[in-house]
Amino acid sequence: MATRSKKPKFIPADPDDLKPMHRWHRPLQAPGITQVDFEERVDFRRLHRYRLARTRQSLAKSGLGAMLCFDQHNIRYISSTVIGEWARDKLIRYCLLTGTGEPWVWDFGSAARHHRLYCPWLKEDHVRAGNPGMRGAIGPGVGLFEAAAKEIKDILAREGVAGMPLGLDVCEPGFLFALQKQGVRVRDGQQMMLMAREVKSHDEITLLNTASAMVDGVYQDITGALKPGVKESQIVALASKRLYEMGSDCVEAINAIAGERCSPHPHNFTDRLIRPGDQAYFDIIHSFIGYRTCYYRTFSVGRATPAQKDAYQRARQWMDGAISMLKPGIGTDKVAKMFPKSTEIGFETEMAAFGLNFCHGLGLGLHERPLISRLNSFIEPYELKAGMVFAVETFCPAKDGVSAARIEEEVVLTQEGAKIISLYPANELPVANAY
Predict the structure, then answer these.
(1) What is the arithmetic mean of pLDDT over 424-435?
(2) Which of 54, 194, 283, 324 is most exposed, with the fewest beta carbons within 10 Å of its own?
(3) Of residues 348, 346, 426, the one with CA closest to residue 393
(4) Which residues pair with 370 in a beta bridge?
């Protein structure tokens, strides 16, 4: 008689490592970008242990035997390895964590050797050079997909989870097919990883707050530079330079939108010259030690019109209404009700208006769980938890047909409610270089 195989014994998440160490009775830290010996700032080894423990906890609940990641944020979350912005769209690095073992990392060329030297939290024999083909640049006939899939299958078997499904976030189709040819049952693992990443620890919140503090300073510089004759692209250059000077490790994108380009929102910048009376808004997206900002501010240049002021006031009201609802235990559907319907801002459907009035989680990724909007939150409500970090965005077109207000606040969800960490003034429409 055939015996039923037992579920392998997973390594449990250490309860001490799972403690987020929140200190809600104290101000949220935004210390300098270096470490010092006379005060605690970020404890990186504690950060590593927390992220790995959160992943183990989520994996144990998922029904998966292991998680294979090509998403750079997931790789960093599990393994605390990174090789910079170059790797963002290459799909060359990958990481494997089984429920019974320690993280495995495959990296580009000599980066793997570097990790073995400088990442003592990883087992040296678990860090390997890897290359599944550079998104097709190396032809499939070479067999890199097949070799990598067999290597992964062998590790799954060795660590006792080959009979369980493998979670996968993103990959090239050829890699997926190669895993399936090896008999590996592949399942969607992205939701499992997003669940692991949703509650930030004290160290993560400190990094997010420091990243936001850098943007506070950049907006001070933008206020001074925002004059007629300056190009949108020059503001982008100014902001990028200042961020790197202050310690940013990646300026992912900066939106710079002015004048008649404000409505509808084009989500990019050009070489348009800023003119007197323009409304202009900016989004600064960068990271500090991996942790991102998404931080809009709107200005009027020289003077503000009644239409511009009215649009800003409405956008601010929607913003304040949404933030007032961000409390632990509240459902995301209740927050979504605070945002305007798509028709109120001139769009025919919620899909067409998506991304203009909503909340999204912030962390290593720009859009993490939960994401709150009228498109999805009434269908699938989600309970908020202390330790979540959000970007809250609102947009209101002005009655003049060209201007628009765009505001965004970054907030940390404490036990008492939302605490704003994007501190450049935004309660009223600021006028840059008034005359």
Answers:
(1) 95
(2) 324
(3) 426
(4) none
- 8 A C-beta contact, residue 426 and residue 388: no
Mean pLDDT of all residues belonging to the chain: 96
2 pLDDT band (50/70/90 cuts)? very low
- List the chain domain ranges: 15-197, 202-432
Radius of gyration for the alpha carbons in the chain, expressed in angstroms and rounded: 23
pLDDT of res. 6: 77
- pTM of the predicted model over 0.90: yes
| pLDDT of 87 | 87
Mean pLDDT value of segment 381-400: 97
Q: How many residues does the chain have?
A: 435
Q: What is the architecture of the domain spanning 15-197?
A: 3-Layer(aba) Sandwich (3.40)
Residue partners of 174: CB distance under 8 A and separation at least 6 = 132, 133, 140, 145
Q: Average the pLDDT over 224-233 and give the result.
A: 97
Residue found by looking up tokens 């003034």 in the block = 425
d(CA 404, CA 259): 9
Q: 407 by DSSP, 3-state: which?
A: strand
Per-residue pLDDT at 109: 87
**CATH number belonging to domain 202-432:** 3.90.230.10
> Could you tell me the CA-to-CA distances from 256 to 2, 179, 253, 298 in Å, in that order?
66, 43, 10, 10
Domain 15-197 identical in fold to domain 202-432: no
* 163 CB-contact burial (10 Å; exposed 0-12 / middle 13-18 / buried 19+): middle
Task: Indicate the pLDDT class of residue 4, thresholds 50, 70 and 90.
Answer: low
* Cα-based torsion angle of the residue sequence 71, 269, 296, 278 in order, rounded to the nearest 10 degrees: -170
Residues ≥6 apart with Cβ < 8 Å to 306 = none
Q: Is the pLDDT of residue 226 over 80?
A: yes
Closest CA to 174 of 202, 152, 141, 151: 141
**Residue 60: closest CA among 71, 70, 52:** 52
Tokens of 425: 């003034």
Nearest to 346 by CA among 334, 356, 358, 333: 356
